[in-house]
Amino acid sequence: MSPDAVLSLLLIALLVGGMLARPLYPKLPTWSLMSLAAFIAVFFGPLGVDDVPRVVNFEVLLFLIGMFSIVALAESSGLLDAFAYWFVSLLRSRLSIFVGSSLLFGLLSAIAVNDTVALMGPPLAAAVARAAGIEYRHMFLLLAFSLTIGSVMTPIGNPQNMLIAVESGMATPFITFLRHLAIPTLINLVATPLLLFKLFGIKNEKVRYVAVAREHIRNRRDAAVAAVVLLGTVAAILANDLAALSGHPHIKNIGFIPFVAASLLYFFATSPREVLAKVEWGTIIFFIAMFITMATIWHGGVLQPLTSALLPSYSGSALDLLAITALSIALSQVLSNVPFVSLFSTYLHELGVADPKAWVALAMASTIAGNLTLLGAASNIIILEVLETRFGATITFLQFLKYGALVTALNLAVYLPFLLLA
């Protein structure tokens, strides 16, 4: 075995072991583990310091900085809270609140990045749980599952989708994602809470939850700026896709659009420094370190035998899409979904895959993999940490798996027919 292969296995063992041991060291953030792996990759591996700019995708980084900035202002101004509480106040029973909350969390994550909803969602989930008489643990599980599902259907719903939109070379990623994934995502956002409501044994009773949206707006100016920039960003990406479809001049690197929009926001925000302080810089560090680490692991060649065994070539058949789904679900539990997508994108490039359905299948399966176990998505860890530190409750690995296995099976049963028969 070559030294590069040994190093790749050691890096994989470090990442997997670190994630499994994380409950014993809750103060150790995930990004610090990835940064250690990146240091080892550069210090001992085939990559040198001069190779870092070549393997780091700056479009994805600027996309994340831009989206985190926009959503940070929307959250700090009270805009997201106002909308969320107003939405839930329209519902009149525990079942309708449960289903409505799933739609709310899911749709928010589709436009505001799922990790952001994982950060701002727990207080809302707790408030709704108190008002509706639902256990915290049940509402937090619903939050975890629904924000994962909702983030599937847009290229700005989660980091791995943005990475796929960039790596795939799709001319119209927003429209392509919505065309293939919007309907099954909406179905899953309704079917999943119905399943969980039954599994949790929650009794359906009438509930009167009153909320006045304007009471949650803490800064009207910032709320207005955030609303304009957020809606403008989504509109700009959609308009860019339509321009690409019609053959008109368009932007090829759509990941830069949110950052350009945020550049305007920084000037008009009441406190630009606070906006930047609320950016999830740990996630940015995670991505920089991940690009370095995954390039080293792929160079070692230890994962290629597995991927080539299940997907030796790509012809666009149903079996190929199922192979991509199986690899995504399984390896995302080992590497987490974003690092897996980073690695697997390289393999699809080697196969010369340009079929949008293959990339959409990768986006769907790598994201839904987060519903299987706690380790499948970073958003799960974020929610768990808030639940333990602020609400004195927890969700064990086996408890999550108990419900997550059924939810993942349901999600795949809905998504796969839409992909295979399209």
From TrEMBL:
Its main location: membrane. It comes from the Archaea. It is a multi-pass membrane protein. InterPro entries: Arsenical_pump_ArsB, Cit_transptr-like_dom. GO terms for molecular function: arsenite transmembrane transporter activity. The chain crosses the membrane at residues 31-49, 61-88, 94-113, 139-157, 177-202, 223-245, 251-269, 281-301, 321-347, 359-383, 403-421. Keywords: Cell membrane, Membrane, Transmembrane, Transmembrane helix, Transport. Residues 32-369 form the Citrate transporter-like domain. Belongs to the CitM (TC 2.A.11) transporter family. This is Anion transporter. It comes from Pyrobaculum arsenaticum. The lineage of its organism: Archaea, Thermoproteota, Thermoprotei, Thermoproteales, Thermoproteaceae.
